[in-house]
Amino acid sequence: MELTYPVVLYIGAGVAAVSLILILFFMKGKKYSGGARSANNEYIKKLPQYKFLMFEYYFLKVIAIVGILGMIMSTTVLVAKPIKVSSNTKEIHNRDIIIGFDVSTSLDSVSCEMCEQLQDMVKGLKGERFGIVIFNGQAVLLVPLTDDYNYVVSELDHLKRSIEAGQNIYYYDDLDELSAYRFAGTSSDRGSSLIGDGLASCLYSFPDFKENPDRARLIILVTDNDVMGDQICSVPQACELCAYKGVKVFGIAPYFVAEENEFKRSLESTGGQYYNTRKRDAIESIIEDVKDTDVSVTYKTSTTVEDIPEMFIIALLVSTALFSVAIWRLRI
Length: 332
Description:
Blueprint: E1 2-3, H1 7-27, H2 42-45, H3 48-80, E2 82-102, H4 108-124, E3 128-135, E4 139-146, H5 149-167, H6 175-179, E5 191-192, H7 195-203, E6 216-222, E7 228-229, H8 235-245, E8 247-253, H9 260-268, E9 274-276, H10 282-291, E10 296-307, H11 310-330
Parallel strand pairs: 2-3, 2-6, 6-8, 8-9
Antiparallel strand pairs: 1-2, 2-10, 3-4, 5-7
Helix pairs in contact: 1-3, 3-11, 4-5, 4-10, 7-8, 8-9
């Protein structure tokens, strides 16, 4: 227990001391000076009834003193405002995940299945922030890092429907708008499937390297590594940047991936892994391995302040009751 205004205790102690002196002074027995005098009353003082009444008298005086002191001290503590201060330290697991999609048409089948699996993954994790980058000739930050999982899931579903709309033009309404969704902002006259630029854009979509240097970060990259244009940054260069920033890259590619060995080495140099859909469980494997990667741990301490007047209110009521009964019996 702590007191919000502890200085009040000093005032209360002073008041209690003065009150005790005054009580003792006024309650001190005085010799009776009026009325008729009696002699030979020693016999009366030996009577059991007289002894009981005298015991009761002194006992009630003590109860009255205890009661009034209890009232003063209880009131003093209540004015000082008793509180309970408690600190709670929580261990928070933090991780940021950027999902990078190569939205060129050669990746349609892989991207659709990844969207479905990632929706389930997002729903099943807590403490992570997710972001989505789509790229082709240039990159677009579709979803900035957020812990609004419903929004991430809805965008993954929207992206999946856009990819499917391009595959089956008779399945959806508003076909032109829906199928063009993934190409809005990602088309460029510099070419298509600029993988290195897309990966670098994923890396620099993490907003707070300086503020949270210890936060775990990783990228899930979906691409066939088939570059068809003029890149500013190659995949090995982008992976070197990721490794420097401490960001792991987990990449998944179809069976027709270009430059597979170099692509795999680049991804593994970041501490991440490479997966290929020629293995039936490739997509499930990348999802499970991402779940099992290290998560940074931070500790958040919260302090709560709770008023606890109940015990002293009860003490005040009890003291008041004792004092009232004692005074009533003493006929003061």
